[in-house]
Design goal:
The structure holds two protein chains of two kinds.
Chain A lengths: L23 H6 L8 E6 L11 E7 L2 E8 L7 H5 L4 H8 L7 H16 L5 H29 L3 H22 L8 E2 L2 E2 L7 H24 L2 H7 L7 H6 L5 H5 L6 H4 L20 H25 L17 H4 L3 H12 L7 E9 L2 E9 L7 E5 L1 H5 L1 H7 L2 E2 H11 L3 H5 L1
Antiparallel strand pairs in A: 1-2, 2-3, 3-9, 4-5, 6-7, 7-8
Chain B lengths: L27 E3 L2 E5 L5 E5 L4 H11 L3 E9 L18 E9 L4 E9 L5 E3 L9 H11 L2 E3 L39
Parallel strand pairs in B: 3-6, 7-8
Antiparallel strand pairs in B: 1-2, 2-3, 4-5, 5-6
Classes of the chains: A alpha+beta, B alpha/beta.
């Protein structure tokens, strides 16, 4: 589409723009004039409904939000800078903490990037284990969304239900990876350890437990008139606006654009499993809620296929320069001891170059850009966090709506501030 | 050999490049800018700050209508880039713009060399409003000025912060920790 044909939905003129581009000092002037009904209200970083430390400056006229601006940086811990001082083997521990609701996706993006630069091929079983855990992580992230979305809009019991389901799955993660969150399980070369015995039964038990509970959510929320009134028609965004703002994930799909990296640019083994991409129509909060709910069901479908078809084999690449040897061998073999030592102290060297790898996280396109200088630490590691990009849509969705709708909008964007601020 | 990145690409491979074994240095021409393939097999196109807007507009016409990412790399302490075609001089900062063509599922990366002495580059906001937040982050972390950006302020660090943290000459920072020895049984 030619540049001149693009709908002029973005106004640079400050008065008509929906984004409040004023500094703190300038914003103080609004509201100082008593004849001007506008007030700048701060929905501060410590707020139960802002999904983490997100600060919103809202320009309001009564209860209507005119312009708004998300102010971030309250969770900035310099993870990209830290990544430059950690070896590639340690990298997963750092990046996993960016999107803490779906940590395996960040680990996956980093590992795929490193493997691409190294030129190693991960064994099939490791790929399928990664896919299994990522899909289960997608389910837990979407359950977290449903819990917080429900509570933000008043269905307080949904908070407990969503976390209850998540608990069951986190127990499974603890058995497989050793941790409930921020697992450091997907590492360059494969995964940290093989799936434990009896994992099939565990996973199938989870898959049995979830569908009746998802139906409970349908009764509590989906068909309910109050829920629909709160969400339908609220926070609408058009597909042109979403694409112009570089939005991805459920927000883009809610506008009707069926873009999902698992199907359009398949990675891991997604081209070998059957699943549908859930797409909305109206681009409103209800569509985003419904998309995430149905994505849980699609993920369950994928997990069933993985359980049936999990291949046997190695769980990490058998390249001794990259993968540390099993701990037991250290006592027996001098070579194993030396490799273990070198990998964990100095780290393995990655050839020079740069690459970008993207995966479909529950929030959208999660990309990892690594520049290597031939040493054992990334020269530059940058993460394209989907929440950071999707936050730009919030001002456009919230414009000219009530403050209660603003809460619904924030909730439906589902930002994770760890990934926004890094 | 350079991969085909667009229908309108004219293949003008420099005869000097034919002999080199490094595939990454062979360059074709894409809208007046040299393009090649990275060592990892991805399509790259190199531009100067003045060429960026025209190149990006032409690429949008080609179908690359989705801006994926805007970021900056500081090559101060890098031994030397292998992906630059001959004729492109590497500067300290490099702006990396990733584009996506959703209909043909192609990706392309624009790399713009930005000298330390004049760290300015035009903003992509008019073409891609979604570049606003990322360009603010690039300014905040590296000190690159984006001309015509609607809100050129810091985004991650506090408004009054001095310095650009992701630059290579900015320390990683540490907090001195005082270890208190405890006599009562460890």
């Amino acid at each position: 589409m030619a540049v001149t044909d693009r709908p002029q939905v973005f106004e640079r003129d400050l008065d008509r723009s929906r984004v409040l581009r004023l500094s703190e000092a300038e914003s103080q002037k609004i509201g100082a004039d008593h004849n001007d009904p506008r007030v700048i209200m701060n929905m501060g970083p410590a707020h139960p409904s802002t999904h983490g430390v997100l600060r919103l400056m809202l320009e309001m006229d009564g209860e209507v939000v005119l312009r708004s601006k998300p102010v971030i940086g309250y969770l900035h811990t310099g993870m990209e800078k830290t990544g430059e001082s950690l070896s590639y083997a340690q990298g997963s521990t750092n990046v996993t903490r960016m999107d803490y609701a779906a940590p395996l996706f960040s680990e996956l993006a980093f590992s795929l990037c490193t493997e691409k630069l190294l030129g190693v091929e991960v064994p099939e079983r490791a790929t399928w284990i990664r896919m299994l855990l990522c899909e289960i992580n997608r389910m837990t992230s979407n359950l977290l969304f449903m819990a917080t979305n429900g509570m933000d809009l008043g269905a307080v019991s949904m908070m407990i239900y969503g976390w209850r389901e998540r608990e069951e799955v986190l127990r499974f993660f603890q058995e497989v990876t050793g941790l409930r969150m921020n697992h450091n399980y997907i590492r360059p070369g494969g995964v940290a350890a093989d799936l434990p015995d009896g994992w099939r039964d565990e996973v199938l038990a989870l898959m049995e437990m979830l569908p009746p509970r998802l139906e409970e959510y349908d009764i509590l929320m989906t068909g309910q008139p109050i829920w629909r009134d709160r969400l339908q028609g609220v926070g609408t965004i058009t597909s042109e606006e979403a694409i112009a703002l570089s939005t991805t994930g459920p927000i883009l799909r809610s506008t009707g654009v069926p873009w999902d990296l698992r199907r359009d640019e398949p990675y891991l083994a997604y081209d070998q499993v059957d699943f549908d991409v859930v797409v909305g129509t109206y681009g409103d909060c209800f569509d985003r809620y419904a998309i995430r709910l149905n994505e849980i069901r699609e993920s369950m479908r994928i997990v069933h296929q993985i359980v049936d078809r999990m291949p046997s084999g190695d769980f990490r690449v058998q390249d001794t320069k990259v993968t540390p040897p099993p701990r037991a061998r250290i006592d027996e073999s001098m070579e194993a001891l030396i490799h273990h030592f070198k990998i964990f102290t100095e780290g393995f060297k990655v050839p020079e170059g740069e690459t970008y790898v993207a995966v479909e996280s529950p929030r959208g396109e999660l990309g990892c850009y690594v520049v290597s200088d031939g040493s054992s630490k990334p020269y530059r590691m940058h993460f394209r966090g989907p929440s950071f990009v999707n936050l730009q849509t919030m001002s456009h969705m919230m414009a000219d709506s009530l403050i209660a709708d603003a809460v619904a909008v924030i909730s439906s964007v589902d930002p994770i501030l760890g990934e926004v601020d890094r | 050999m350079a991969t085909d990145t667009a229908d309108t690409e004219t293949d003008e491979v420099d005869t000097d490049e034919v002999d080199t074994t490094e595939a990454a240095t062979a360059a074709a021409d894409l809208h007046g800018c040299p393009s090649n393939t990275s060592t990892a097999g991805e399509a790259l196109v190199h531009a100067t700050p003045d060429q960026l807007i025209d190149l990006a507009s032409a690429l949008v016409e080609d179908g690359f209508s989705f801006l994926v990412d805007v970021t900056v790399v500081d090559y101060l302490s890098h031994p030397g880039r292998v992906d630059l075609p001959t004729g492109v001089v590497g500067e300290r900062f490099e702006l990396v713009v990733s584009l996506l063509d959703r209909s043909d599922r192609r990706r392309l990366r624009i790399r713009v060399q930005i000298p330390e002495s004049d760290p300015k580059v035009p903003s992509l906001f008019d073409l891609f409003p979604g570049s606003e937040a990322r360009e603010r982050e690039a300014f905040d972390m590296f000190g690159i000025e984006f001309e015509n950006h609607p809100d050129p302020t810091r985004i991650l660090m506090p408004e009054d912060w001095v310095g650009h943290p992701l630059r290579k000459d900015y320390g990683i920072g540490s907090i001195p920790v005082q270890f208190k020895s405890s006599d009562a049984g460890r």
